[in-house]
Amino acid sequence: MAKMPLGDKASRVLKLMMGMRSPRIASAMAAYGFKDSDLQEGWALLHAVGRVKLDANGIPTTDTNTLAELDAWENRWFPIASATLERRFPAVHAQIFKNLSQTEGPAVAVSVRTFLERFDQMAQGTGSYGAEGKQARDLLVSRGLTESVLNDARTLLENVGKIAVSKEPVAPQDPKIAEKAENDLWAWYLEWSQIARIAVTQRALLKQLGFMASRSKSHAADDGEETDDEVPVPPGGTAKPTVPAAPNV
Question: How far apart are CA 203 and CA 207, in angstroms?
């Protein structure tokens, strides 16, 4: 069976993390040691994987108002930036919009964060952006994409999972680093998704976490990668490992 694509993995992680921010789910998970620092670790690992194109279908829409504002920001400024750069700075356009398109739901946080990081690199003339990057930045500012407008997006991102928008240039990753980042992210997901399936019992909340309501076993993908309706099984364990009693949601 084919290995699960990185975009699919990132989408599942995003679903899980957004669900973990529900007070009822967070309360149930706290009984098993899940803390805010664990949630922030998940965001950091997702960030480290790199900018990936996520499929927004089926991702729960928590923090609806903030996400709607972020989506409106994306809908306004992505087309303006794209149209401006595509004609006048095609090489810059190709870099800043590589594998980047308008999205919806929680995935919009990833697309906007990616745009902001690339914008900062472009504005500094980092790497292959060179002098054209600074010229492109000045042109976009004249079109209204000012630092104030960029800061509006950064503020919204801070309110959605506390995603930190780094201003530091991001060095290109070699395949080994990228593979490690992907493996670390997936290991985080497998650990907490398994615990979540024990801590959370309500079908609606399980769906909010991105799980199928059914807890039946299904076929698994390669390398321990699970399908939506699979209950992860630890090595040598059973589908429902013995755990200390804790309040369930």
Answer: 6
Half-sphere exposure of 29 (CA within 13 A, CB side): 26
From first to last of the 249 residues of the chain, give the pLDDT tens digit.
Answer: 457 877 778 878 888 988 888 888 999 999 999 998 898 898 888 877 754 333 333 334 445 678 888 989 999 999 999 999 999 999 999 999 988 888 877 778 888 988 999 999 999 998 889 999 999 999 999 999 999 999 999 988 887 754 333 444 444 556 787 788 889 999 999 999 999 999 998 888 998 898 864 444 443 333 445 443 333 333 333 333 333 333 344
Give the up-direction half-sphere exposure of residue 132: CA atoms within 13 A in the CB hemisphere: 14
The two three-digit tokens of residue 96, written as one number: 């800043």
Q: Give percent helix, percent strand, percent coil of the chain, each to the nearest 5.
A: 60, 0, 40
Instruction: Report in angstroms the alpha-carbon separations of 222 from 5, 96, 172, 176, 211.
Output: 11, 33, 28, 19, 19
